[in-house]
Design goal:
Length: about 140
């Protein structure tokens, strides 16, 4: 949550003054001056791990399709990249996947906050949820 909060603040600032990015995280020297900033980007780390695990799976001969027959974003963007190298670079694929993960985690966090808020505000519903969870085991 703190990572998302930090990224949102940074995006808000650089969204208002895009030139700031060139002097902050967009500056290649920044990573050398403050190497700990790499650990700040948990979303990118998660994305790269997911990509690396999928590449390994594909080399082992696993199917590319999900159980429901739909294809995920990684496979779709990899197909675009493979069909036309000028349309999309590897960096673009990583950026798009990271953006989707970031947006999804932000949406999930907001939904969970709303659920918790309303359960606290309505204790009778909270009791029903707790009872349902207890009986499910």
């Amino acid at each position: 949550m703190e990572t998302i909060k930090g990224i949102l603040f940074y995006a808000a600032m650089c969204g208002q003054v895009p030139e700031m990015h060139l002097f902050l995280l967009g500056n290649p020297l920044f990573l050398y001056l403050i190497p700990a900033i790499e650990s700040w980007n948990a979303v990118l780390t998660f994305t790269l791990k997911a990509i690396n695990s999928r590449i390994t799976i594909q080399r082992d001969g696993e199917l590319e399709l999900n159980d429901d027959g739909s294809r995920d974003f990684l496979l779709k963007w990899a197909a675009v990249k493979k069909s036309d190298l000028l349309k999309m670079s590897t960096r673009d694929v990583i950026t798009y996947l990271s953006t989707n993960i970031f947006a999804g985690s932000d949406t999930t966090a907001i939904a969970l906050r709303v659920i918790i808020y309303f359960l606290i505000k309505h204790p009778e519903n909270m009791r029903m949820v707790i009872e349902e969870i207890d009986t499910a085991n």
